Amino acid sequence: MTTTTPGAAEVELAIGGMTCASCAARIEKKLNRMDGVEAT
């Protein structure tokens, strides 16, 4: 079961131009450090 905070939104980002897994991991790591952001 998944619970969300009232008023929370789900956003899917399509980011192009990354040519390696390291680039994708770096962006995901930065986003996950932001308050209220969760990777699924």
TrEMBL record:
GO terms for molecular function: metal ion binding. It comes from the Bacteria. SUPFAM superfamilies: HMA, heavy metal-associated domain (SSF55008). Residues 9-40 form the HMA domain. Pfam families: HMA. InterPro entries: HMA_dom, HMA_dom_sf. Gene3D superfamilies: 3.30.70.100. This is Heavy-metal-associated domain-containing protein. The lineage of its organism: Bacteria, Bacillati, Actinomycetota, Actinomycetes, Kitasatosporales.
